[in-house]
Specification:
Oligomer: homodimer
Radius of gyration of chain A: 20 Å
Helix content of chain A: 40-55%
Largest interface: A-B, 42 and 42 residues
Largest sheet of chain A: 3 strands, antiparallel
Distance between the termini of chain A: 18 Å
Strand order of the largest sheet of chain A: 3-4-5
Number of strands of chain A: 14
């Protein structure tokens, strides 16, 4: 199948309307914490608060979303103020004395947990940069760049972060280069950063060289520092949705560079491999984990369908289609779009459920928790809408 | 319903036969690592090795099982030698230079991961004590007592183990007193330990006072240090199967003390509350996680059915029935026994599967991994067989 102008226009309208009339109103303005600042995002199906704790990742992500809406959609003062509230909370409470960020906070800003990773930092960079752009705030832009510099340091200085494993069997994950590519892209496309292109090149090269296995038609989640597949339960496990997210970051880069052929091939290969291995031909939807050699995956819930891989696949397939015109990608986009809006979307109360069993039945009804909040879904709806606007 | 002598004899024979002709042969002798010592236990449905890594918990547990079989069932030299192989591996490789134990090892004994908990130590105590009893090894008995002393220290000295959370919202888990009760019971009933009774009293008192909520008819998994229910997603979550395991440790103590009425009531209450909240009336089986106020549980796989809660419930219901004669417990035992042997038992290749979806379909086929090995199932079959022998 292919999409004609009419269908593309229809899709653009659908994503715009879902974003502004369904997804966003679930969260905004009711999630603003007018007492302590920041957001109250852990909500049940109907939108009632089930926990007043605050997730640091999701504070960065929602502040990014609100600032980006202000910048790209409409200059609504409440969006900018909403973004500022999250950013103030992050700056005031979420940095430890060693300069690293926490992961989980109490409502009043007391820290509950710090983790060994620096993704709190990468999402804070997104928020700061988007806000700096939206508000024209040069100081905030400087702060975003400083924090991005720290992320580069964490990623490239061995031993800087506390290790989870001994040195017996060193591994590295695709998450770090992937998320850093997106962080650098966002920084570059909001406030500009001279380091962006250089580092994006390096991280894409690392993914292509060490994680994408053309002979196996697979994108690994973890490999040895030299890029070898390690034949153990945990290291054989890969995450189709995560690699598909990586694929569209690389396709986005291909588009940014005027259709760079090598990047286009790399991004499409990653998407193709993960679609082949990740799509459930029996029940539909994208599996959470798979084993590269089809052996049992340690994570017992490996065949569940989570919301966010579907958001990433909706973006990746649409982007691949607009870049290549290959009808296969329109077909896949249609397939994942239909599955996702049929199964995850809550027609009654808005937004998406997060967690389905393999057969598509609902395993858990919360809309927000420590790991799920207003990010993957509204980002998908915004990204697809903006992308389609250019094509109709 | 109630069980007559004939049915009890039949059950005793069933558990004995399952243990010796189905469960044990899946693992033994093929899992002995004749090259590096210890066990190769990560196996797929058919018994093929899917990973040669070694789990420290499961090494202690399997060594305990083999030594206990030698002591309680039959003095087969291969069982004692098998136990020794695991114990040698634990003693030679699994202690870090600070005296604490690792969690995850490579086949050759190189450490891969150490965790913040001391359950590697408690399961090593079980193994050392059971082996000391079986082999009449006084030196090993001394080592078991020394290691148990360290466990008491870890449990009672704040700050001795690296914390996972900040001090903002202190919590404590039922796992520590529960597992230590069982460790002390095993130590007492194999090699004897003067500290046993005193500490068992304290830990049972702590569970009764801080974790068992009669007004809510619930056993909490985590509470504040003073025993309060904390109204947050993670702390509202409880684990029916875990509390049912704790219930039978306490019922075992009631039996040991000649039918102590207070302990009997406590153990039965814990079992009753968790059965009411944990049994799935629609599909059968025991849910993994629930929320004390019936709100959404953060863990998306919360309604899955794992093998081990069913092992613990089979023991707890049978023990409650033999101690009280209450027909309810015979009915429950029948219910969980039937569900479990119908759904988890692999009639073709022996042993049990570990992970079912809520509706009882199979989510993952491995028999052994970093968390599942020869422990809960063979312990259940051995315990029930031995218990029934006294009643027929």
């Amino acid at each position: 199948m292919s999409y004609d102008k009419h269908r593309l226009r229809e899709l653009a309208g659908f994503y715009k309307s879902q974003l502004l009339n369904d997804t966003l109103p679930f969260w905004f303005p009711r999630s603003l914490d007018t007492e302590h600042g920041g957001y109250l995002l852990m909500r049940d199906r109907e939108g009632r608060l089930i926990d007043d704790d605050k997730a640091v990742w999701i504070h960065g992500r929602f502040a990014w979303l609100l600032a980006t809406l202000y910048d790209q959609v409409e200059a609504r003062e409440e969006w900018l103020e909403g973004a500022k509230s999250g950013i103030d909370f992050l700056r005031k409470y979420c940095f430890d004395t060693d300069g690293r960020m926490f992961f989980h906070m109490a409502r009043n800003g007391s820290p509950i947990r710090k983790r060994r990773y620096f993704f709190s930092e990468t999402f804070a960079v997104l928020a700061l940069a988007a806000y700096a752009k939206a508000a024209g705030d040069a100081e905030m832009a400087e702060e975003a760049r400083r924090l991005f510099g720290k992320c580069i340091q964490y990623a490239t200085t061995p031993g800087m972060l506390p290790p989870k494993f001994t040195d017996t069997r060193p591994t590295k994950g695709i998450g770090v280069p992937m998320i850093l590519i997106n962080t650098a892209q966002q920084l570059r496309e909001t406030i500009g950063d001279p380091r962006g292109d250089i580092w994006i090149d390096r991280w894409i090269e690392e993914i292509a060289r060490d994680f994408v296995k053309d002979d196996l038609r697979c994108v690994m989640e973890q490999v040895s520092p030299e890029g070898q597949v390690l034949d153990h339960i945990d290291t054989r496990t890969f995450t189709p949705g995560h690699a598909i997210e990586g694929a569209w970051f690389i396709l986005h880069e291909a588009a940014y560079r005027g259709g760079d052929k090598d990047l286009l091939r790399l991004g499409c290969n990653m998407l193709d491999y993960m679609w082949e291995r990740g799509w459930d031909n029996e029940y539909g939807g994208i599996y959470y984990f798979r084993d590269v050699y089809h052996r049992p995956v340690q994570e017992y819930w490996q065949d569940m369908k989570f919301w966010w891989p579907h958001n990433e696949a909706i973006i990746a397939t649409l982007l691949a289609y607009t870049l290549t015109g290959d009808e296969k990608y329109a077909r896949w986009h249609d397939q994942v779009h239909t599955y996702a809006y049929d199964h995850f979307h809550d027609k009654q109360h808005g937004e998406w459920f997060g967690y389905l069993r393999r057969d598509g039945t609902l395993a858990q009804t919360a809309k927000g928790n420590l790991f799920k909040g207003p990010f993957h879904l509204p980002r998908q709806e915004l990204y697809c809408w903006q992308l389609l606007k250019k094509h109709v």
